[in-house]
Specification:
488 residues; alpha+beta; 2 domains; 6-stranded antiparallel sheet; 3-stranded antiparallel sheet; 50% helix; globular
């Protein structure tokens, strides 16, 4: 009997041998500090020449923007450049590819997780959970991919530095905000490393609970503004989108024209020279492919709606020029509406451009990345591949266009509000990284987080300086005629 038990124990031990213990994973993370100490993160790599848009390493931010434009709708490039030129922070929002190049040029920890890929403070926001609670989480996954955890953290830290500069905060005030972000991240990743796995998989930040917790730390008028903003977010749904984007024509809804940011399919087919029936066929193929990516239960929800109109809709800053469709559907009566967004998914900027993509379908990359990083997601999230109006096959991901979605307004934040927001951004990012990778290894590398925080405060300031120079290079390129631009 004893021999049988011993044999069984040995077999079970072999089953678990491929998975190190939490202590072993923390130790592995701590060992990385011998190769890449925290202080090594303080400065960006390959510092550019201030006298030129290109440095001795060939770094030219304008060239990166030009290269991205070759795969985008030409008629929208001037709008994209104009939106990016509005401010250094607006430039930063559209410059994920530039920062990805910079991050690849610097040493990294090699401690990988699923990354957001464009982790800045405006990409943490509000959305509805399936049971209709309002949650705070990451809300943009166009660039999601696997990579070193610190890439997301660095991008988030630099975004707070730029937002603080735009608000006129003093250097020491900005440093305190970024320190709050980083210590919050380190504390949250440590908690995550000790949290039961299933509990962490569904850990959520409820917006109402957050407001109840921090209300006493805000001035009454600020707290009231935040509460009103959250209440307004609950009104951002498909019905609100239809009211803003469509008119009733002949008893049915039709998207109105507001070129170049909203152009109905009926006008695009005229512009591209294909007949209306062909355009409708391609939209139908897109929706059929999308349906096949849903679970059967969610596909049955989609089946209860019918398409009434389709339009091209420009959104954001960095996404301008990619193909983004909105599809208007009705269900049980004309007031039962659903607006879906089908957004083109190109290769993640985090992937090295000289290597094949790790993903056969870029829409699937976005969907799988979002599902890994979020505790709860859109029940209608899916993906498809379809031939567009220009005859080219492209990948898309599809989601609800508005489902209580909202984002922060850093241009209105006081110092205390931004500091609190930084704390929550740290928690959100840490939980996402814990779901997408191994929290124990990350926590082992960070230790108490203080040395890493000091290094990234310096990094954020240095990278914000670089971004301001890159923004100036963009403005110069527009002024000289190298790039077209229109006012946003």
């Amino acid at each position: 009997m004893t021999d049988t038990v011993a044999s069984a124990d040995a077999s079970i031990a072999r089953l678990g041998a491929h998975r190190p213990t939490r202590s072993e994973r923390r130790a592995a993370g701590a060992a990385v500090r011998d190769r890449l100490p925290h202080e090594a993160h303080a400065e960006p790599n390959a510092e550019p020449n201030a006298e030129s848009s290109a440095d001795e390493h060939g770094r030219d931010p304008v060239a990166v923007i030009e290269a991205q434009g070759r795969t985008r709708l030409p008629d929208l490039l001037a709008l994209r450049h104009g939106r990016m030129a509005a401010s250094p922070f607006a430039f930063y929002r559209g410059a994920a590819a530039i920062m990805a190049d910079d991050l690849r040029a610097a040493p990294d920890t090699g401690i990988e997780t699923q990354l957001c890929g464009d982790a800045h403070l405006s990409n943490v926001g509000l959305f509805a959970s399936p049971e209709r609670s309002l949650l705070i989480d990451l809300n943009d996954f166009d660039e999601t991919a696997v990579g070193p955890f610190e890439w997301d953290v660095k991008r988030m830290a630099a975004s707070f530095e730029l937002a603080g500069r735009a608000r006129g905060f003093a250097p020491e005030q900005r440093a305190r905000i970024i320190s709050r972000l980083l210590t919050s991240y380190a504390e949250a990743i440590d908690v995550a490393s000790r949290t039961p796995v299933l509990e962490m998989a569904t850990a959520r930040l409820d917006a109402d609970a957050m407001i109840a917790r921090v209300r006493g730390e805000l001035r009454p008028e600020v707290a009231e503004r935040v509460v009103k903003g959250i209440a307004k977010t609950r009104q951002r749904d498909s019905a609100d989108a239809v009211a803003r984007l469509a008119d009733q024509v002949g008893g049915s809804y039709r998207f109105r024209t507001n070129a170049p940011t909203l152009v109905p399919l009926r006008e695009l087919t005229e512009h591209t020279g294909i007949d209306q029936a062909t355009g409708i066929d391609r939209v139908e193929a897109m929706l059929l492919g999308y349906r096949s990516s849903l679970t059967e239960a969610h596909a049955r929800i989609l089946d209860r709606f019918r398409v009434v109109d389709v339009a091209l809709k420009v959104v954001g800053v960095g996404s301008v020029g990619t193909r983004a469709w909105v599809v208007l559907l009705t269900g049980n009566g004309k007031r039962d509406v659903l607006v879906l967004q089908a957004k083109e998914a190109q290769r993640s900027v985090l992937e090295p451009p000289d290597r094949p993509s790790a993903y056969a379908h870029q829409g699937e990359r976005v969907v799988h990345g979002q599902r890994r990083l979020q505790a709860f997601g859109d029940v209608l999230l899916g993906y498809t591949r379809v031939v567009g109006l220009d005859g080219q096959e492209r990948d898309f991901y599809v989601r609800q266009f508005r489902d209580w979605k909202g984002s922060a307004e850093p241009e209105r934040m006081e110092r205390s509000t931004m500091k609190l927001y930084a704390e929550y951004c740290g928690i959100v990012l840490a939980r996402a990284h814990a779901r997408g990778g191994d929290a124990a290894t990350i926590s082992g590398y960070l230790g108490d987080g203080n040395a890493f925080a000091r290094a990234l405060v310096q990094f954020a300031a240095a990278y914000a300086d670089r971004t301001e120079r890159d923004h100036a290079a963009l403005v110069d390129a527009i002024t000289s005629g190298r790039l077209p631009a229109v006012a946003p």
